[in-house]
Design a protein that fits this description.
The protein has about 300 residues and is of the alpha+beta class. The protein folds into 2 domains: about 70-80 and about 225-305, Elongation Factor Tu (Ef-tu), domain 3 (Beta Barrel); about 80-225, Beta Barrel (OB fold (Dihydrolipoamide Acetyltransferase, E2P)). About 35% of the residues lie in helices and about 25% in strands. The chain contains 4 helices and 14 strands. It has helices at about 1-35, 45-65, 115-145, 150-175; strands at about 70-75, 80-85, 90-95, 100, 105-110, 195, 200-205, 215, 220-225, 230-235, 250-255, 260-270, 280-285, 300-305. Strand 11 and strand 12 (about 260-270) form a beta hairpin. Helix 3 (about 115-145) packs antiparallel against helix 4. The longest helix has about 30 residues, at about 1-35.
Amino acid sequence: MKVYLLAVLLTAATLSCSRSQQTSEEPAASATTAPLHTERTPSPLASDSDSLKVDAVTSATHVANSPTFNGQMMISPDRQATVTSTMGGQIHQLLVLPGKAVKQGQLIALLDNPELIELQQTYFESSAQLEYLDAEYQRQQSLGRQEAASQKRVQQCKADFLSMRSKMLAAATRLKALGIDAASLNPTEMMAYLPVKAPISGYVTDLQVNLGKYVETGDPICNIIDKHKPLLQLTVYEKDLHFMKEGCVVDFRINGMGKKTFSATVISIDQAVNRSDYSIKVYARLNEYNADFRPGMYVRAKVRK
């Protein structure tokens, strides 16, 4: 019995020592692993917030600089002309080609129309009749003063004279509208074809006729452009309009001409806003001329600081 009690006591003492050893080891392990849990991983929300801050700074920096404006090269309306026919007729002769340079007053084409012959005939006949009626009117006035002719006859001669003069002036005016000086015409050598001349100096574009084609009055024959003083037409959106002021200088480049930079001065800002994209047209005059410039060329420009 004593032996049994001794065995029970030894077993209890052994268990007690094991528990106390485990209890003493737990704080040490806890103290060793605690620093590993002190590092805190940033949450996804904090990461997104930092990213937005970076984007906001980048955007603000971009807006602070002058943006790039797209546009194209164009010809001022006062430096281009549409050549039209002032009388219907067939193209008898064509003396130009697209891209060719012409001078103001240079012959472009000849039109064939029988009405031109009839108009000249009317002018010559009325001019000859006017000379006779003028002499007859002067004679009747002289006889009237001597009471050898009735006043009715004098008035009739005057009416005939004024009527014929009006007819001659009308024919001369029509010829002038066609570009023909009636005083330079010769009754023995009437003009067979109507000349079409260049209204300005420049380059021929958009040639729309060929030999034998019939053109009506007012139909376009070709366009002539003077590209020595082209303009830039830039597209500016509302948010960037404050960058543009009349007199400011813009630097621009043209596709196909490498990295060479040109300059232009803003001369006009359109007052109308495009309803489709809320853009405004800004016009700038080039500060230097280049023979390679052509209307319609695509440009990218920035306001000079």
